[in-house]
Amino acid sequence: MEIIEVRHLRKAFGGKAVHKDVTFTVKRGECLGLLGGSGSGKSVILRSLIGLERPDSGEVFVDGIDICKLSERDMFEVRKKVAYAFQNGALFDSMTVSENVAYGLIEHTTLSAKQISERVSALLGEFNLSGTENLYPPELSGGMQKRVGLARAIAMGPKAILYDEPTAGLDPANTVNIQELISRLQKRGTSAILVTHDIDTALAVCDRICFLEEGKILNLAPVEEIKKDRDALMKLFIRGTHE
């Protein structure tokens, strides 16, 4: 069963069509890779899935609900189901690591302070961030900031996670760490969409890979088939970056 379904999404900015007819699905427990050139609207798709952008036409279903018809207030429930892991972590610099991770739990749950503290400690341990509880984001490395952002994203137990360039700017060791974290969450049944320019990461964690080109999604193939013809993916990617 699909946790996310996008049907004939169309979106334009200032008269320029970004999405002409985007259609795709994400099954429960699946990681869908979304690749495309810069400016192809990959992040716009992610923002559309949590109501930060409204399509000009088309339908966006999350867990069977057409979110295009929801009010901003009703979108809060959807955002509990679909978490957004921002490219730069989007942490609050004025809050400690613990406060950042606990933010959604405090604002949108009825958990006690003790339960929230236990949940935050468990997440920081899982993400190899124990000992950073009282640090502030500027005191962390780029890789640590991304891990804190991921910990915050999954704190409320979402059914799906939207990853926006999770390995951008990271060294090889931290890239592998993020790949392992994504794969671990997927094994628990969490669905995902991975927007990335990092083909190696896409091949490492995704079940299927699609390419966004000329306002539409090209369904390429399951990742195992793509690995057998990596050159074809590279040519498509290079073509997209030079449009």
Write the layout of secondary structure elements.
Layout: E1 2-13, E2 16-27, E3 31-36, H1 42-49, E4 57-62, E5 65-66, H2 75-81, E6 82-85, H3 97-108, H4 113-126, H5 142-154, E7 160-164, H6 172-187, E8 191-195, H7 199-205, E9 208-213, E10 216-222, H8 223-228, H9 230-241
Parallel strand pairs: 3-8, 3-9, 6-7, 7-8
Antiparallel strand pairs: 1-2, 1-4, 4-5, 9-10
Helix pairs in contact: 3-4, 3-5
Briefly characterize the structure.
The protein has 243 residues and is an alpha/beta fold. Helix content is 39%, strand content 27%.
Q: What is the CATH fold-level name of the domain at 2-88 and 160-241? A: Rossmann fold
Share of β-strand residues: 25-35%
Low-confidence stretches: none
CATH superfamily caption of the domain at 2-88 and 160-241: P-loop containing nucleotide triphosphate hydrolases
Gap from first CA to last CA: 35 Å
The helix/strand series, from N terminus to C terminus, equals EEEHEEHEHHHEHEHEEHH
Number of helices: 9
* Rg calc: 18 Å
The computed structural class is: alpha/beta
The profile of the biggest β sheet is: 6 strands, mixed
What is the level 1 CATH name of the domain at 2-88 and 160-241?
Answer: Alpha Beta
**Helix content class:** 25-40%
Mean pLDDT: 88
CATH architecture identity of the domain at 2-88 and 160-241: 3-Layer(aba) Sandwich
Largest sheet strand order: 6-7-8-3-9-10
- Give the CA-based shape: globular
Number of strands: 10
